[in-house]
Write a structure and sequence with these properties.
Layout lengths: L8 H9 L2 H13 L21 E7 L2 E7 L7 H21 L10 E8 L4 E9 L18 H7 L6 E3 L17 H8 L5
Parallel strand pairs: 2-5
Antiparallel strand pairs: 1-2, 1-3, 3-4
Amino acid sequence: IAALRCETAREVLDAFLTSDRVCEDDLPLALGFPDTWSQHIVLREWVSIATHLEFRGFVYDNKLTGLTQYFSGAHFPQLVAAKDEVAALVSAFFDEIRGAVGLDPAEYVLDLGVDLDARRCFVIELNPFGRPDGLGTGTVLFNMRVPDDAAVLFGEAPFQFRIVTEPPTAPLGSLVREGPLRRWLIEHGVAL
């Protein structure tokens, strides 16, 4: 999302200070486990990825067990049409990189961007994942409290790729909190 692209150090700090992930995930973990929590911040060149082509993959026992669109509050008709192509690209990409990740145990979440025109995938980031509850990493369109979903993510059921197939019914304004994304949407005339 172009609204998250930062050009200055101040913009980077603003993004962190208004981030749902930092406030809801990282700070509680850092404060709750000060002796063991480790966080890394990586700054890199911006790569534009279409919003409908960002995904979260789940890896358990070095197998891709599940895949979901990253932005769960949105319906993308073009993703519905390209679902099989995306699944094939991500599967082939995972087969290429699985040995290079080097995590033991091989249990993690793999956030990806897909470029359908170039037929390639990009690693956005890796996050922790594992038993018993996913280790706090969000599961997007899967629900760890649902035994059938947990079975998929932990490799006890066949691979699933989940996307939103119908438009959401919640108003956009209730889905977007204060921060750079909300400001960008307002600046570009999106009704919230």
